[in-house]
Amino acid sequence: LQRQDSVARLHPFITCTSDVARESASLSQKRYGSGENRGPLDGIPVAVKDNFCTSGIQTTCGSVMLQNYVPTYSATVVKRLQKAGAVIVGKTNLDEFGMGSGTIDSTFGPSKNIYRSGIKYDLLLSNREPDGLDSRFPTAAVEDEDWYVAGGSSGGSAVSVASGSTFLALGSDTGGSVRNPASYCGVVGLKPSYGLVSRCGLISLVNSMDVPGLFGRYVDDVAAMLSVVSGLDPQDATTVPSDLQSLQLPENPSLEGLVIGIPKEYHCPGMKKEVIDTWTKVADLMENCGAQVREVSLPHTKYSIICYSVLNPCEVASNFTRYTGVFYGHRVESSHSMEAMYALTRSAGLNDVVKGRILAGNYFLLKENKNRYFKQALKVRRLISQDFDKVWSSGVDLLLTPVTLSTAVRYSEFNNVDNRTQQATQDFCTQAANMAGVPAVNIPISLNTEGLPISLQLMAPWGQDAALLSAAKWIE
Ligand code: GLN
């Protein structure tokens, strides 16, 4: 209980699903007793980001708009996890509707990073011993009033894994929302290839970029989770058949014959020296162990944030027309007119970040602006995607880059109003993968002198998720 209290201070969960968890845990126990065929995740505690629908369980998206919304169905990924025996212990906190990179913009309050929070991860759920330097075990926690952000928008899921509350967690990644908090919290975070994992039941942010993402403490754990959730879903027409159902990573992955690209444009302004040093160190290590490492160019990377900043609001503006207070969600009654009810409902139900994006999106989509902004951004997106294609066809197997420009940032620094653009630049290294649909994974590498995790990212061609995870396991 004491432990639960201390983890609760970090606020990973919006809703704890204790009853559901107890019921499914007791089913697991029965199956175990009777020797029945157990699913690969039988009895494993898993957290689910609160933008995945869960039948009969509140699904809030961190927003007033959906704070009382109880879906009548579960997302395909949730159903697949449950079928494999996973025990869903709670719904995790997020920036409202997944818009943000700090998990500070939730109507339920922020999630906090376990690093330097004064809370010691106590290995309760771990069967592996930490080896002193292992960044996944926050040992050197220091009492600190000015806490560090967890990253976002899937910060609650990252914290639930980093604090040992769950072994695995589901997140969603539209521009980096799984990899960013995984980087800050020192856990593994995978954004699979677009279409490999069903979005049915994931509440839409940007349909053309949203991907359900996976958190775990180890790459093998994430691979086990991917094997359960991936594959064709008749309810999501963008999914593809997958042969990853029996995915098992090699015991000792090898780098022999692999060509690793280092995209020079990812050396971007504002990147901390310790991040660059870690990047160089790991690249050297890979070279010394059989990989061929070469510098490559993704020339349109510099446009990725600006391009994302147009495309994201456009899809948001379109998706968010559904929140009117008519079918579901929050409603503010008005006796004046239907329009007044819509306006009052949206005004009270959505935060400023969401409203700002709806406004921006509608502006970019105005008849007179559409070609200048929306269509132009689609063209730039194509160029960003083609950069990747060119690099892969030149013989490069994987790209190694940083994930975030720095380690986790203090809340006071992150929440600075003048600093909202700095939040967007933290996504510099992650957004291009969403625009190109390629898989990418965050791998925790080490702790810096302050005791905060430093992580790196690997990216692979579309569909090469297994090869990506093997190399990630080697680095881990
Ligand atoms: N930080 C980005 C945004 O605010 C990414 C969000 C995400 O991946 N869901 O849009």
TrEMBL record:
InterPro entries: Amidase, Amidase_CS, Amidase_dom, AS_sf, GatA. Pfam families: Amidase (PF01425). GO terms for molecular function: ATP binding; glutaminyl-tRNA synthase (glutamine-hydrolyzing) activity. GO terms for cellular component: glutamyl-tRNA(Gln) amidotransferase complex; mitochondrion. Its EC number is 6.3.5.7. This is Glutamyl-tRNA(Gln) amidotransferase subunit A, mitochondrial. It comes from Homarus americanus. Allows the formation of correctly charged Gln-tRNA(Gln) through the transamidation of misacylated Glu-tRNA(Gln) in the mitochondria. The reaction takes place in the presence of glutamine and ATP through an activated gamma-phospho-Glu-tRNA(Gln). Residues 1-113, 148-469 form the Amidase domain. One of its GO terms (biological process) is glutaminyl-tRNAGln biosynthesis via transamidation. It catalyses: L-glutamyl-tRNA(Gln) + L-glutamine + ATP + H2O = L-glutaminyl-tRNA(Gln) + L-glutamate + ADP + phosphate + H(+). Subunit of the heterotrimeric GatCAB amidotransferase (AdT) complex, composed of A, B and C subunits. It is found in: Mitochondrion. The active site is at residues 49, 153, 177. Its main location: mitochondrion. Belongs to the amidase family. GatA subfamily. PANTHER family: GLUTAMYL-TRNA(GLN) AMIDOTRANSFERASE SUBUNIT A, MITOCHONDRIAL, TRANSAMIDASE. It comes from the Eukaryota. Keywords: ATP-binding, Ligase, Mitochondrion, Nucleotide-binding, Protein biosynthesis. Gene3D superfamilies: Amidase signature (AS) domain.
